[in-house]
Amino acid sequence: MDPILTVSNVGKKYRRYHPDRPATIQEAMAKGALGWRKMKSVEEFWSLSGITFSVGAGRTVGIVGANGSGKSTLLRLIGGVGRPDTGRIEVGGRIGGLLDLTAGFHHDLTGRENAMLAGILNGLSRKQVLERMDAIVSFAEVEDAIDSPVRTYSSGMQMRLAFSVTVHTDPEILLIDEVLAVGDMAFKRKCLDRIAKFKAEGCSILLVSHVGTTVEDMCDDAIWLDSGRLMAHGLVGDVVEQYTAHMNDNPSRVRRQ
Amino acid sequence: MKSETLEVPIRVVSSTKVGARIHTLDLLRELIERDIKLRYRGSLLGILWTLLNPLAELLVLIFVFGLVLRVNIPNYPAYLFTGLIVYGWFQTSVNFATGSIVGNRELVRRPGVPAAILPVVTVASNLVHFVLSLPILVGLLILSDIPFTTALLALPFLIALEFVLILGFAYPVAMIHVWFRDTQHVLRIALQLLFYMTPVFYEASSVPGRVQWFYQLNPMAQMIGAYRAVLLGGELPSPSSVLYLTVISGTLLAVGLAWFRKASHRFPDEL
Questions:
Q1: Comparing C-alpha atoms, which of A197, A169, A164 is closest to residue A179?
Q2: Which chain B residues are closer than 8 Å to A126 by Cβ?
Q3: Does some domain include residue B18?
Q4: Domain range for residue B140?
Q5: Record: contact A99-B6, CB cut-off 8 A
Q6: Is residue B15 in a domain?
Q7: Does the structure show a pLDDT above 60 at B12?
Q8: Is the dihedral of CA A82, A83, A88, A92 positive or negative?
Q9: Is A206 on the interface with B (CB under 8 A)?
Q10: How many domains does chain B have?
Q11: Is B258 within a domain?
Q12: What is the reported pLDDT for B68?
């Protein structure tokens, strides 16, 4: 079967700058030539390097790894935020991404206005979003608040609306960061049921997983990242076993955030 | 797995279904609406501010230059208002465009948003304001008994040309502001200075000969001159100034956009 997502030799470089790096034209001028020299990064590190894997259509892949291992960076790159410094990412379908708790909502706009924009950004037309708006609102259970500014929403309500928009945009690849960490149990259950339905419909899913959670149960495969490197990729049971063993051997390792 | 060949980074998105890509026009429309809504949300008069601003400026300048200093320009209100709205669109757009990347952090860091659309949104939403003030201009033209001629057909072309010119400025300043956060302050001063050095409330011909070269090179002076020829003079703008504006606008936009594109993949990391 053809993979729907191919990640080949992907690397992402982050730059650390001089603490005195000028942040304004005024500072740069005041410091003269010295200031301009400090614009250059003093240190670079690879938050991801040499990542190669592919995801077959309909597979659900959990990404495990410690904080700062590059899980979110990887999801962002696949979602098209930023660009890898090496390698390439080939995507063969519509991506629905839930990468940020705030989902990019603007606090002064209403839930409806934000949902419209989010729907378009997920690849729908205005007309399609309008047709689906009722379904989006009722799934998110925010009927009473949909025409109020999002700043009046609780974080759970924002997450519900964001999740609801994403699942109503027919994604063929669903990217989910740790968003399922918020929201009450009932809604979490509803989200997981919805994700399971996507899975049954043949959607490919990539999610940041936590060992020993319900999320882990629904993955077919898993990827283990450590300090930006791919340590293992395979069936979820095998990878989690290796990962757990590794964590038990190195319990107090301090990781770069 | 860890081969060290460095390939050119490309992101290939091949759509397997129709509609798998973003509907750019819908996105543009939604972002422009949002821009306008946000600017006036919570303000009592809402979009009326768009009209009050140039009107207030018009009255002040008519008082100073029409009544106190007695500038000798025929149809001064219409002359002045043309300059005010043409320069106003440029000034407001460039000012707002500076913050269009930094101020939209949450959009730039989301999947699906092409950063290059954001300066376009700013210029376009200010175009809406520009168009909304045209009825006032029409009123002034009628009051001054200026005939409507077929030269007015050139107006859409001038608007398109000014759009390109503004965008040519908008891309570089929006990008520079990502790295230098006082760009907006520097620009505000520069644009205010340029306002006085552009023949908005006076005639380019009354400028002394030794600074004429600046007025010849200043694209906004040429732009306002072209609008005035069409609106007040009932004639087509001079071919040389249209040619100059086309070359300048096209070059600025091409260079600005190329530069912006090159830097834009670093925006999510810098914000």
A1: A164
A2: 23, 26, 29-30
A3: no
A4: 24-270
A5: no
A6: no
A7: no
A8: positive
A9: no
A10: 1
A11: yes
A12: 87
